[in-house]
Design goal:
Number of strands: 4
Oligomer: single chain
CATH class: Alpha Beta
Number of helices: 4
Strand order of the largest sheet: 3-2-1-4
Number of domains: 1
Low-confidence stretches: none
Largest sheet: 4 strands, mixed
Structural class: alpha+beta
Helix content: 40-55%
Shape: globular
Mean pLDDT: 89
C-alpha cells in the first residue's frame, strides 16, 4: 500500500509543478505517459479543452507486428516516435512532458527520446 501511496503523491506533485509553472496554460499541451508491466502508452492532451489530440500505444495495430515485446525500451522508443508523428500531423510542435509519477529512466526515458526524434520539443 505504501508504494501506491508514494506513486500517487509523486504523480500529484509532478502535475502540480506543471500547472504552477503555467506551461499548460500557455498553449503547451501535455504529453502524458502510462507504463504497465506489459505495455506503454502516451497521449497528447489539451487540458484546457479536455481533449486528447494524439495517442500511441505498444498495442497499436501499426506497431503490434513489429515489436518483439510491448515492455522493452525499443518498444517505448517506437511508441514515442509514432506519437510524435501523429502530434506533428495534428499541428502540435511543443509539449510539456508529464511522466506521471514514473522515474525518468529506462522505458520512460526511451519514450522521451523517441518523441524528440519524432519532432516534438519539450
Amino acid at each position: 500500500m505504501k508504494d501506491k501511496t508514494s506513486f500517487t503523491r509523486r504523480r500529484q506533485r509532478i502535475r502540480a509543478r506543471l500547472k504552477r509553472a503555467g506551461e499548460t496554460g500557455k498553449g503547451r499541451l501535455r504529453l502524458s505517459v502510462f507504463r504497465s508491466a506489459k505495455h506503454i502508452s502516451v497521449q497528447v492532451i489539451d487540458d484546457g479543452k479536455g481533449v486528447t489530440i494524439a495517442a500511441a500505444s505498444s498495442q497499436d495495430k501499426d506497431l503490434r507486428g513489429k515489436l518483439k515485446s510491448g515492455a522493452s525500451r525499443a518498444a517505448a522508443q517506437a511508441v514515442g516516435r509514432l506519437a510524435a508523428e501523429r502530434a506533428v500531423k495534428a499541428g502540435v510542435k511543443q509539449v510539456v512532458f508529464d511522466r506521471g509519477g514514473y522515474l525518468y529512466h529506462g522505458r520512460v526515458k526511451a519514450l522521451a527520446d523517441g518523441v524528440r526524434e519524432g519532432g516534438l520539443e519539450f
